[in-house]
Design brief:
The protein is of the alpha+beta class. Helix content is 16%, strand content 28%. The relative contact order is 0.18. The protein binds FE2/S2 (inorganic) cluster. The site of FE2/S2 (inorganic) cluster (FES) has 11 residues, from loops.
Length: 144
């Protein structure tokens, strides 16, 4: 390999490394999941969350999210509720909701998913299962 070819190859590798580092290291603290491994959705994927309970307080904040029964439930920046399976389809790390980009994100290796769970960027290849949400008063039903 010629020196120029080697440097060009190194430059591409460095750019790729920086991009990968940015996905993991440039994310906001609000999307940290501490590398937690998620649980698969339990057989109880039809449940109701009381939005008045302290444990669900994050759902009163645009961009906030909670985990329940293997599902991540998030409130978008426009105030609607969305839900998908919490386990990243790559290696099972719990995804987080990144409200500023309206996406689900895995801090482990940088996979990102749309707000409906569709893979935007790998290494994950499979979509997250999407769940339905409906609000009646202060009660949020999640089902799928
Ligand atoms: S476990 Fe999510 S990207 Fe690897």
């Amino acid at each position: 390999m010629e020196r120029k070819e080697f440097i060009n190859a190194l430059g591409l590798s460095t750019a790729t490394l920086l991009l990968a580092t940015c996905f993991g290291g440039c994310s906001k603290a609000s999307v940290s999941n501490n590398g937690n491994t998620a649980q698969p959705p339990s057989s109880n994927s039809d449940f109701v969350l009381d939005l008045n309970l302290t444990e669900n307080a994050n759902l009163g904040i645009n961009g906030g999210f909670v985990y329940k029964n293997g599902i991540i439930i998030a409130r978008t920046t426009t105030g609607s509720y969305i839900a998908v399976a919490m386990a990243c389809t790559h290696q099972g790390t719990a995804v987080v909701y990144d409200g500023s980009n309206n996406r689900f994100f895995c801090n482990n290796h940088g996979s990102s998913f749309s707000n409906t769970g569709v893979v935007n960027n790998g290494p994950a290849l499979t979509n997250l299962k999407q769940y339905n949400t409906t609000v009646t008063g202060s009660m949020l039903r999640v089902y799928g």
